[in-house]
Write a structure and sequence with these properties.
This protein starts with a strand and ends with a strand. The chain has 403 residues and is an all-beta fold. Helix content is 1%, strand content 48%. Strands 12-18-17-14-15 form a 5-stranded mixed beta sheet, with no helix packed on it. Strands 21, 22, 24, 25 and 26 form a 5-stranded antiparallel beta sheet that branches. It has a 4-stranded antiparallel beta sheet with strand order 30-29-32-33, with no helix packed on it. The protein has 4 domains: 4-89, no CATH class; 130-221, Immunoglobulin-like (Sandwich); 228-322, Immunoglobulin-like; 333-402, Sandwich (Immunoglobulin-like).
Length: 403
């Protein structure tokens, strides 16, 4: 049910309700109370509004047939004698784009004949648009250019705007550009850091795209290092984590620092591997993190810090390994920080059907959430601003900031 009004008055209705009753005090403007009863009949698929004038003395309908809540129509008095009602209705879940919803109103004054209106038709846009951020180079100095494309489904209302997200840890993505109708932007970012981006489109009726795996593009912003990365990967063998990587076209390269983290955020150096220095061929490296059971952690995160002879450095991608079981991807959370709602995109489909637990900073359990899809929205609007944690069934711990 939406707002309604008559003559020159408009009345609001609380959000998201399907029935409404109120006695309106209109004694100052027309010397009456007006009772409004509105609702939705699920059997007949009909919405209804009933307006009843009430005499404030007798608390009964007025005896004078000319005394009612609608004034006589008068072109000199604006909306006098006019009334309106608003409502919203969702299409069936089986609806597809270009299906239509038709609506006709029937107006009855007292015991008079019904007055039918014309039929008004709304065309449905049932599906969200899709977008894609174009490939980025692995390394660039400022400024950098982001560009993207997007399409709505055939017959849809068209894309209204794009939202750009960014992350510096490949896990938590914050809104970078909230609404843009452009398809590119040029910007400068703090150098010597890795940035990952994705774009989501919203169409003109409010259908919002959800992130698809593989739609993230990353770039290192800083002085280009004289090394071409081919890959960085890892695997768990017994109680050891074995890291493998390869480079090509090394020039003036000095060393690789191997860094490890148990939470994916705070990294520390655990070893060093000397580089080939100058080489125009493929170079293969390996580092073993022995006896990982001593860390008492199910998940371990690794990255490489490649340093050249001039002291410039660049970080590799992050590799996440799970003790006993290899894990190649992270669960992604966006937007983070959030004003109230987040989307969790799980990289491991075995998490679908499991329970995630929401904690506050004191470790108190706030609620359990069943993961029903690989991309799931979670609402934190009912909680005060602050830091929260969501623990997945595979022990991944997501840190969420609500602000």
């Amino acid at each position: 049910m939406g707002s309604f009004g008559f003559n020159n008055q408009t009345f609001a209705v609380p959000n998201s309700i399907a029935s409404y009753y109120q006695r309106l005090d209109c004694r100052d403007s027309m010397g009456l109370y007006v009772d409004i009863t509105a609702g939705y009949d699920q059997v007949s698929n009909q919405a209804f509004w009933e307006f009843q004038s009430i005499d404030p003395v007798t608390l009964l309908p007025p005896s004078d047939p000319l005394k009612g809540f609608l004034f006589l129509q008068d072109s000199a008095k604006g909306n006098a004698g006019h009334a309106f009602v608003n409502f919203n209705i969702k299409p069936k879940q089986t609806a597809i784009t270009l299906d239509t919803i038709g609506a006709r109103a029937s107006i009855v004054f007292d015991g008079n004949d019904t007055i039918p209106t014309n039929i008004h038709t709304n065309t449905i846009d049932a599906f969200a648009p899709t977008s894609h951020i174009n490939n980025l180079p692995s390394n660039s100095t400022n400024p950098i250019t982001l560009s993207w494309t997007g399409t709505d489904d055939a017959g849809g209302s068209g894309i209204d705007y794009y939202t750009i997200y960014v992350s510096t840890d490949q896990v938590n993505y914050d809104v970078f550009i909230p609404k843009t109708r452009r398809n590119d932007t040029t910007l400068s970012l703090p150098p010597n850091s890795n940035y990952c981006f994705f774009v989501l489109a919203t169409d003109k009726v409010g259908n919002k795209e959800t992130l698809r795996l593989g739609e993230v593009q990353c770039i290192y912003v800083g002085v280009a290092l004289p090394v071409t990365w081919l890959y960085f990967r890892g695997k768990t063998v017994a109680k050891d984590n074995i890291l493998d990587w390869a480079t090509a076209n090394e020039q003036n390269s000095k060393q690789f620092d191997v860094e490890r983290s148990l939470n994916g955020i705070d990294f520390s150096r655990i070893g060093m591997v000397t580089t080939a220095g100058n080489s125009g061929q493929t170079n293969i490296y390996q580092y073993t993190d022995h006896d990982i059971d001593r860390l008492n952690s199910e998940f371990m995160f690794y990255r490489l810090k490649q340093i050249d002879l001039n002291g410039n450095f660049k970080y590799s991608n992050i590799v996440s390994l799970r003790y006993i079981e290899t894990k190649s991807n992270h669960t992604i959370v966006y937007p983070n920080p959030t004003p109230g709602s987040i989307t969790i995109l799980v990289a491991d489909n075995t998490l679908v059907g499991t329970i995630a637990v929401v904690y506050d900073v004191n470790g108190r359990i706030l609620e359990n959430i069943k993961i029903t899809a690989s991309s799931q929205q979670v609402t934190l609007s009912k909680y005060v601003n602050g830091t929260y944690f969501i623990k997945m069934s595979n022990n991944e711990l997501l840190k969420i900031v609500k602000q």
